[in-house]
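> call design_seq(struct)
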């Protein structure tokens, strides 16, 4: 059992029981607020859980789950996921999807399918307009004969090859979602950064300045005119 004792201005002492700080930090990472619930700091645990998960799931919703994915390819290094994974279990499906699609496998939890645009020539032959312009199947639309679909998975990296000079699948995500792709990415990223603070708080306790510390900080401030 680890306890942190703070000296208050009125001479009283505030004791915060951190229990097992490392286990609390692990719980705080796996599920925002869980570490504080373990420490019986229920108000702060509820606050962190509401704020972190609210930001994260709102970003996932706005980004149609495409803004959270793990990819470490040379042309698509998803550095944002390094922050998003700090949310814990809610971001873990991206790791599963990255593993199952690593060698060209189909993603789990498919949310949409798409295929290249095609037209019919005068002779009746099918002609691919642009093999990198993937469009989504409309409701009730069947896949053309002998055409392989590209599947969008929940928190899965973009299928197909990455081509920075043409409109690949990742490019179509940006086109379809517009600014919501950037907003969703930002919200999920900030949620991860916020939970890092929660993890730190669960490990070392709240940041409460003593009277002496406040006086020391106040010495550097200019006096009121």
């Amino acid at each position: 059992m680890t306890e942190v004792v703070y000296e208050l201005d009125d001479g009283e002492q505030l004791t915060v029981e951190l229990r097992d700080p490392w286990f609390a930090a692990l719980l705080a990472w796996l599920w925002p607020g869980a570490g504080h619930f373990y420490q019986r700091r229920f108000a702060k645990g509820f606050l962190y859980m509401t704020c972190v998960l609210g930001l994260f799931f709102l970003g996932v919703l706005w980004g149609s789950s495409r803004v959270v994915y793990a990819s470490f390819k040379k042309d698509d290094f998803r550095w944002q996921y390094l922050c998003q994974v700090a949310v814990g279990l809610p971001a873990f499906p991206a790791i599963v999807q990255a593993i199952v699609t690593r060698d060209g496998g189909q993603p789990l939890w498919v949310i949409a399918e798409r295929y290249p645009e095609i037209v019919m020539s005068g002779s009746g032959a099918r002609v691919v307009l642009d093999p990198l312009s993937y469009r989504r199947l409309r409701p009730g639309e069947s896949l053309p004969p002998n055409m392989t679909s590209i599947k969008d998975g929940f928190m899965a990296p973009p299928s197909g090859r990455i081509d920075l000079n043409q409109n690949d699948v990742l490019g179509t995500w940006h086109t379809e979602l517009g600014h919501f792709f950037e907003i969703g990415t930002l919200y999920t990223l900030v949620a991860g950064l916020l939970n890092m603070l929660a993890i730190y708080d669960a490990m070392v306790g709240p940041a409460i300045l003593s009277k002496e510390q406040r006086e020391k900080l106040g010495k550097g401030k200019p006096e009121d005119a």
